[in-house]
Amino acid sequence: MAKLVVFIIALIMATIVQGQPQ
């Protein structure tokens, strides 16, 4: 269960990074 939460957080973080202009 914890791994699922970590995976979701990592996915969100990756999405935010892709949304950055850099």
From TrEMBL:
Q: Give the highest taxon in the source lineage.
A: Eukaryota
Q: Which named protein is this?
A: Uncharacterized protein
Which organism is this protein's natural source?
Bracon brevicornis
